[in-house]
TrEMBL record:
Localization in the cell: Cell membrane
PROSITE patterns found in the cross-reference section: ABC_TM1
PANTHER family in UniProt: ABC TRANSPORTER PERMEASE PROTEIN, OLIGOPEPTIDE TRANSPORT SYSTEM PERMEASE PROTEIN APPC
Keywords, ordered alphabetically: Cell membrane, Membrane, Transmembrane, Transmembrane helix, Transport
Record-level GO BP terms: transmembrane transport
The family this protein is said to belong to: Belongs to the binding-protein-dependent transport system permease family.
InterPro entries cross-referenced by the UniProt entry: BP-dependent_transpt_permease, MetI-like, MetI-like_sf, OppC_N
Residue stretches spanning the membrane: 25-46, 97-127, 134-154, 166-183, 226-253, 273-295
Alphabetical list of Pfam families matching this protein: BPD_transp_1 (PF00528), OppC_N (PF12911)
Organism (species): Parasedimentitalea psychrophila
Name the record gives this protein: ABC transporter permease
Keyword Cytoplasm: no
Membrane-topology descriptor: Multi-pass membrane protein
Length: 307
């Protein structure tokens, strides 16, 4: 048996893998999330049409209902919008933008938060006080307002001509800089518990520096709660992006995310073109629900008291 096979068998036979296999909700949620991620990753291959290729659009095919409704066409499964863009293809491409923003902003927030929590919890004193007061200020405002403020500041710094091209980066920074506080407070509390344990004292005795202790000894022991928090925050990040795009300060119509598609479709909801907004909204709900259910399972699986 090769080393790789042994490692795969060890992972498959672990307690977490066993818990995952026994949870139908976790398996179903993971399957839904995996299908969405694969569809977004291979969007040019799996989408029936390219919704951004003007040569493929025909205004004669605009506002077509879903294929199973009278007047629908089989090559437009979920219908078309007012610009004759295939709704299914638009959702697949929009899903790609939403997932990029979600994963990138969670990574940014986790990086800043974990680093701040490690430094504050390990060093204590003035450094810890400054970091926690900044966190307290951010927590005193609703996250969406903080994201709107950061978004507005970044857009004010950039020239008007660069807003469309930098919209993705601005969204990632806005959401990431809003959500790092939760990671910082979680890691800080765990670090303050770990720093007084005997293995840390042993590392100090062996001459290991503060940076080495934080990265090699404390960080691996505080990653469990961080993984759970990151999984749950992924759904929140996707919802925040959708909210910002729905408010008109997110992705432009030329690079629509799920939130942008909902914002565009909402204008035609009461004119009878319900499919333009219903299907993107259902996709967003399914994405967030699957992520949250996975986060709930992971929180229980990593809790030794619940095993």
């Amino acid at each position: 048996m090769s080393v790789l096979t042994q490692k795969l068998y060890t992972v498959w036979d672990s307690d977490i893998a066993y818990s995952f296999r026994k949870s139908r909700v976790a398996v179903f949620s993971a399957t839904v999330l995996a299908l969405m991620m694969l569809s977004a990753l291979f969007a040019p291959l799996v989408s029936p049409h390219d919704p951004f290729d003007i040569a493929q659009l025909s205004l004669f095919d605009s506002e077509l209902p879903p294929a199973w409704v009278d007047g629908g066409q089989s090559n437009y499964l979920l219908g078309t919008d007012t610009q004759a863009r295939d709704v299914l293809s638009s959702i697949i491409y929009g899903l790609r933008i939403s997932l990029i923003v979600g994963f990138s902003s969670v990574f940014l927030a986790a990086f800043i938060g974990v680093l701040s929590g490690l430094i504050g919890g390990f060093l204590g004193g003035f450094v810890d006080a400054v970091l926690m007061r900044i966190a307290d200020v951010l927590l005193s405002f609703p996250p969406i307002l903080v994201a709107l403020m950061i978004n507005g500041i970044l857009r004010g710094i950039l020239p008007q001509s660069a807003h469309a091209d930098s919209a993705l980066l601005v969204l990632i920074l806005s959401i990431g800089l809003t959500n790092w506080v939760q990671y910082a407070r979680t890691v800080r509390g765990s670090t303050m518990v770990e720093r007084s344990k005997e293995y840390i004292e042993a590392a100090r005795t062996l001459g290991t520096g503060s940076g080495g202790i934080m990265l090699r000894h404390i960080l691996p022991n505080v990653m469990g709660p961080v993984l759970v928090l990151a999984t749950i925050n992924l759904g929140m990040a996707v919802l925040t992006e959708a909210t910002l795009s729905f408010l008109g300060v997110g992705m432009p119509a030329t690079q629509p995310s799920l939130g942008t598609l909902i914002q565009i479709g909402n204008e035609y909801l009461f004119s009878g073109i319900w499919w333009v907004v219903i299907f993107p909204a259902a996709t967003l709900a399914a994405l967030v629900l699957s992520v949250n259910l996975l986060g709930d399972w992971l929180r229980d699986a990593l809790n030794p008291k619940l095993r």
